[in-house]
Design brief:
Layout (H helix, E strand, L loop, with lengths): L11 E6 L2 E6 L11 H14 L5 E6 L23 H10 L4 E5 L2 E3 L1 H8 L2 E4 L4 E3 L13 H9 L1 H10 L3 E2 H6 L5 E2 L4 H11 L19 H14 L5 H14 L2 H16 L2 H15 L18 E4 L3 H12 L4 E4 L3 H20 L5 H9 L1 E4 L10 E4 L5 H14 L5 E4 L6 H5 L8 E6 L8 E5 L6 H13 L3 E5 L7 H18 L3 H11 L5 H8 L1 H15 L7 H7 L12 E3 L5 E3 L1 H14 L8 H22 L5 H12 L8 H8 L1 H10 L6 H9 L3 H10 L1
Parallel strand pairs: 2-3, 3-4, 4-6, 5-7, 6-9, 10-11, 10-13, 11-12, 13-14, 14-15, 16-17
Antiparallel strand pairs: 1-2, 7-8, 15-16, 18-19
Helix pairs in contact: 1-2, 2-3, 4-5, 4-9, 5-8, 5-9, 8-9, 9-10, 11-25, 12-13, 13-14, 18-24, 19-24, 22-23, 26-27, 27-28
Keywords: Fatty acid metabolism, Isomerase, Lipid degradation, Lipid metabolism, Lyase, Multifunctional enzyme, NAD, Oxidoreductase, Peroxisome
Subcellular location: Peroxisome
Catalytic activity: a (3S)-3-hydroxyacyl-CoA + NAD(+) = a 3-oxoacyl-CoA + NADH + H(+)
Length: 700
């Protein structure tokens, strides 16, 4: 191979191998389609067109990948300044010499669209290709909705575009999306392939094909499917419409429609919400005072105290990544029960074809059950996962202080209790941290990492690295009652109970949040978690505050013995599918409670219920933000999306509030009798959003 023709800095470097021009995209780290890339590609194509000695062109990515997609940061640029991906695609499609996309790493979004505009595509077997735009609330906007169905068929194209999930090059080859798999040197193989095809005419343009398998039933099934998988979302519906156009109208008409629909999706609040959370999740990994140079401890073994629902789920996270776990219980029966649940979970996964029985046995072999806490003496991290009782937790940490080896991390899975108080009973508070997993712990992605007053930087940095290793989204929070997520959800629950006291039915309150896009409303969530948990927290809070025993309508339901799904009945009854069914006796209990308290019920609209509940989260979030319990509003949004089911396309509660306008939020809070948090009121008066607050704080 020859050296590049120009030594000038450029995002696209041309070079020659005989009669083949090579255009190498060098825009690290992922060769995103940023300004400069289209200009470089167009210049290279123009040079190839003007040079009769060039018989074919190879486009390849430098570094670790082909093109991982568009640069999301350019989405908000004025159109005339944004990188011209569509123009580059058009130039490629009309090019009169063969072009070959040589793919390694990933060709995602605009990267795959670029590749599909080439005459041919070759790839290493391990490469991945896909159109993930739906995950950002947009759609393939540079021919993806029109070309992909023409190659892989209507059904597979819809599956790829609506899921947003990539496929391996090996599968893409079977579908005809990749023309040749290259086992050896990719560039050499691509040049050889280009030379083979140099004289082939006519050029096989994807834009000139028809769409295989494009029956009306395929598109009808897709529209029905997105009602469940993408309820309330705009871009999936537009994707189906455009894929159908690929099958029913000329390419140019579909191409033009795609541009219009892309802008419609991009400018929607849903896309802004999804793009917000995309960046917020990445920002949440940045911790003031923690750098790449902060030392970390390698976690090679873990200890878990408690083999119940939480302890077992936490253990599975470690087993899944090959970290041995010693799990401790106080009674053999509880230990056996916990192990059987872990095994059953794995076997259920194997029955669904997601792992083999050999994998099940390999993971179970990493698990050591014991009744002796002393067996945790060699663990690198020990996580306490017993019930929410401060005295019990302090007793455990007192014992751990004498058992755990020097340098071991001592973590509590508490969801509400004071981690500083727990740490105070040890001689090494710098080693203590809160790791709040969410139930079911083996499924939920969120991990609240609670930094106590004396937690060391090493322990914090190690915990963040561990979160990534066990495939969790770790968000650092400070110590307060309930931290971030549960502190907000307690306020949310208070408002939900008030709505019922004032006249709403529980199912109507839940429906108001379902309408916002949450899979469960507050009472459905309470029944799933267990009403007895909230009951115990309210009892504890009242005792600490020296207040009388709580006696709300929800407390009375618990006192009848109904604890939620675990007892087949709580606020609702449950059938074998765990579908919530309103219970007439519980409704009468609520009505009797109102009568006893002298409350005259009134009609409450869905709009009022939605605003009061959503804005109670926002208001508490603003207080948490101002207190420094959360570092950023974006962190709160990440917590609520990954831990509480807030719809990602809303961007989280704080982003949702910003979309509504913070002055409107403040006005509604005051209208419904809530006092706006000082930070919220100040931002509203200044006409700012929470994202602007985060940006200003980050620059300070």
């Amino acid at each position: 191979m020859s050296t590049p023709e120009s030594s000038q800095p450029s995002l696209v470097q041309p070079s020659r191998d005989g009669d083949v021009l090579i255009l190498t995209i060098n825009n690290p780290p992922v060769n995103a389609f940023s300004p400069g890339v289209p200009e470089g590609l167009k210049a290279g194509l123009d040079a190839a067109a003007a040079d009769d000695s060039v018989k074919a062109v190879v486009i390849i990515g430098g570094g670790r990948t082909f093109v991982a997609g568009a640069d999301i940061r350019t989405f908000d640029m004025p159109r005339e300044q944004a990188p011209d991906l569509r123009g580059t695609i058009q130039k490629l499609d009309a090019f009169t010499k063969p072009t070959v996309a040589a793919i390694h790493g990933t060709a995602l979004g605009g990267g795959l669209e670029l590749a599909m505009a080439c005459t041919y595509r070759v790839a290493v077997p391990g490469a991945q290709v896909g159109l993930p735009e739906v995950k950002l609330g947009v759609l393939p906007g540079a021919g993806g909705t029109q070309r992909l169905p023409r190659v892989v068929g209507a059904a597979k194209a819809l599956d790829m575009m609506l899921s947003g999930n990539p496929i391996r090059a090996t599968e893409a080859s079977q579908l005809g999306l990749i023309d040749r798999l290259i086992d050896g040197d990719l560039l050499a193989g691509a040049v050889e392939f280009a030379r083979e095809m140099a004289d082939a005419r006519p050029l096989p343009r994807i834009s000139e094909r028809s769409v295989p398998g494009a029956t009306p039933d395929v598109f009808a099934a897709a529209r029905q499917g997105i009602k469940k998988t993408h309820r309330g979302q705009l871009s999936p519906s537009l994707i189906v419409d455009l894929a159908e156009m690929a099958a029913t109208v000329p390419f140019q008409e579909g191409w033009d429609a795609e541009a219009t629909r892309f802008m419609e999706a991009k400018d929607s609040p849903q896309s802004r919400g999804l793009r917000h959370i995309f960046f917020a999740e990445r920002e949440s990994a940045k911790i003031p005072g923690i750098t790449r140079d902060t030392p970390t401890t390698e976690i090679r073994s873990a200890g878990i105290i408690g083999a119940g629902t939480m302890g077992g789920g936490i253990a599975m996270n470690f087993l899944n990544v090959g970290i041995p776990v010693t799990i401790v219980e106080t009674q053999q029966e509880a230990l056996d029960r916990g192990l059987s649940v872990i095994r059953r979970n794995y076997e259920n996964t194997a029955r669904k074809g997601r792992m083999s029985m050999e994998d099940v046995e390999a993971r179970m072999a990493l698990l050591t059950p014991t009744l002796d806490m002393g067996d945790l003496k060699d663990a690198d991290i020990i996580i306490e996962a017993v019930f929410e009782n401060m005295d019990v937790k302090k007793d455990i940490f007192t014992k751990l202080d004498g058992i755990a080896k020097p340098g071991a991390i001592l973590a509590t899975n508490t969801s509400t209790l004071d981690v500083n108080e727990i740490a105070s009973v040890t001689s090494r508070p710098e080693s203590v941290i809160g790791l709040h997993f969410f139930s079911p712990a083996n499924v939920m992605k969120l991990l609240e990492i609670v930094r106590a007053e004396k937690t060391s930087d090493t322990v914090l940095a190690t915990s963040m690295a561990l979160a990534r290793k066990i495939k969790k989204v770790g968000v650092v929070v400070g110590v307060c009652d309930g931290f971030v997520g549960n502190r907000m959800v307690h306020r949310y629950g208070d408002e939900a109970r008030k709505l019922v006291e004032e006249g709403a039915r529980p199912q109507d309150v839940d429906a108001s949040m379902n309408a916002l896009g949450l899979p469960m409303g507050p009472f459905q969530m309470s029944d799933m978690a267990g009403l007895d948990i909230g009951y115990a927290i309210r009892q504890h809070q009242a005792k600490v505050a020296g207040k009388p025993k709580p006696d709300g309508w929800l407390d009375r339901i618990v006192e009848t013995g109904r604890k939620g799904q675990k007892t087949q009945g709580g606020i609702y009854d449950y059938d074998e599918t765990r579908r919530p069914i309103p219970n007439a006796d519980m409704q009468k209990l609520i009505e009797d409670y109102r009568a006893e308290k002298g409350i005259t019920p009134r009609e409450i609209t869905q709009e009022e219920s939605t605003k009061r509940l959503a804005y109670s989260l926002v208001n508490e979030g603003a207080k948490i933000l101002e207190e420094g319990i959360a570092q950023r509003a974006g962190d709160i949004d990440v917590i609520y999306i990954y831990g509480y089911g807030f719809p990602a396309y809303r961007g989280g509660p704080m982003q949702y509030a910003s979309e509504q306008g913070l002055s409107s939020v403040v006005a509604d809070l005051e209208k419904y009798g809530q006092t706006p948090a000082p930070l919220l009121k100040r931002l509203a008066e200044e006409g700012k959003t929470f994202a602007q607050y985060d940006a200003e704080k980050g620059r300070a």
